[in-house]
Amino acid sequence: MSRFPLRYGRFGDRRPGDEAAAPASGLTIGVEEEFLLLDPGTGATVSRASEVLDGLAPLPDGAALHRELRPTQVEAATGICTDAARLRAQVVRGRQILRDAAARHGTVIAASGTPLCSGPLPPRDNEGRFGRIDAGYRGLVADYEACGTHVHVGVPGKELAVQVLNRVRPWLPALLTLSVNSPFDRGRDTGYGSWRMVLQSRFPGAGVPPPFDGFAGYEAEVARLVDCGVLIDPAMSFWLARPSARLPTIEFRVADTALTVDEAVLQAVLSRALVRRALADIERGTALVPVSGQIAAAAVWAAARDGIDGVGVDPVAAKQVPAGQTVANLLAYVRPALEDTGDLGFVRESLRRLTSAGTGATRQRRARAAGMPALVAMLTGGHDG
């Protein structure tokens, strides 16, 4: 689900992709990571976000920490970054600060897209935006503790952002294929790699966004959804990518929370490469490839089910292919952009490790076979790798 941030006022106002730091179009990147707060003994979620975040010093470089819709979740947002090394350092720092703060309050942060086991339902909000969300979506959000990795990529101008959005649509399922990390739903193995994506699909307007003629068309569609009562306000949408409501960025909201730092950085550099490739294609006048909304939805569902294992869907060819082929197609498409930013070697090595060790979902299942303590230990440690 999209994040519903409550900004802790004294923290920095800059967010990933702020245009002030953009030396060239499509170069800035930033990451927002959502985490679960768990009881270290049982693995159940605990409602301690306010305690964990209270009293933390402001972060440098425009980074910030937030609570989420449910008080069982916290978020770490990097500042504006122009290279993967700086981004990685900020992701490591945000995770470490949250980990240390959680420990002081008898809890741990877990890098998982969904809760591991049943726990008490988190309390609802009765006021403010969170209160309106609870009132509007009711049972859909009562136990919604799903966590994702959101990537912001700088794009100069709203019209250009919509043109880029139209061109990244076919590749969003491939990003999910790499990131599945939520196989369990309150103690049950769902059989899916990303149960978070299945939960998110229940919301109106979820999934791959439709194509838009321009920014006015995008704004009009969001306004219609608000008028229909299915969105709380124009800042909300459930699409897997969108122009940011406040920033000169494209926001990718596809990935589950990454099990490791490097997997979070992988999502960021691939997302930036997609934007760079789209900008280059726009400049060259390359024709836009049409993709059916229904086929795109099928591709998202297949990616959520199997990740890099099993069968995926090629949204352009509209047919089943090995899931690994969708990733190979993505890499071939963005390779020139990755070469431009010097990220190709990192991406290749990251994909090699994923193929060898498995996705986060695969590793969660492997750890769970050894018992819940082993699973909790894996999800709450090793965040820096």
Automatic annotation (TrEMBL):
Keywords, ordered alphabetically: ATP-binding, Ligase, Nucleotide-binding
GO biological process: modified amino acid biosynthetic process
One MF term in the entry's GO annotations: ATP binding
Reaction equation(s) it catalyzes: L-cysteine + L-glutamate + ATP = gamma-L-glutamyl-L-cysteine + ADP + phosphate + H(+)
EC assignment: 6.3.2.2
Key word Ligase present: yes
Pfam families, per the entry: GCS2
Coiled coil: none
Matching SUPFAM superfamilies: Glutamine synthetase/guanido kinase
NCBIfam families, per database record: gshA_cyan_rel (TIGR02050), PRK13517.1-1 (NF010041)
Job description of the protein: ATP-dependent carboxylate-amine ligase which exhibits weak glutamate--cysteine ligase activity.
Family matches, as HAMAP family: Glu_cys_ligase_2 (MF_01609)
Family (UniProt): Belongs to the glutamate--cysteine ligase type 2 family. YbdK subfamily.
Name this polypeptide is given: Putative glutamate--cysteine ligase 2
